[in-house]
Design a protein that fits this description.
By secondary structure, this protein is of the alpha+beta class. Helix content is 51%, strand content 12%. The protein is built from five helices and three strands. It has helices spanning 14-27, 67-72, 77-104, 108-113, 119-131, and strands at 7-8, 31-37, 40-46. The protein has a three-stranded mixed β-sheet, covered by helices on one side. It is elongated, with a radius of gyration of 22 Å.
Amino acid sequence: FEPLDGVANALDNVEARTYMDRRCVYYNKPLLESGTLGTKGNTQVVIPKVTESYSSSQDPPEKSIPICTLKNFPNAIEHTLQWARDLFEGQFTQSVLTASQYVEDPTFKDKTMALPGAQPLETIQTVLRLVV
């Protein structure tokens, strides 16, 4: 930490943020703390001996597990359970609803083709897998 002029965070959990904050306080380094949860974003600028540190305030408990933790670094039993729940919902709920919309909604094709990125192809593949 000694050669650093400051630290910019983009971490996905409170424990990691608190650890980095403690290091910055110890080494007297400014910290730009940032985070997202879905569509919500937050930033905090921490300047040594001028502003309060990240750890000085208490974040509300996390209501959901960050997607990046589930996909890249699941490290608790809750992560495994959420991953399994998401997989089950995708296979047995979302896919079936998509196929049902295909059968019942005459504008399904137009709506699907208007989706961004690879979503149209993935949606059509889901329908083919279930209907054909």
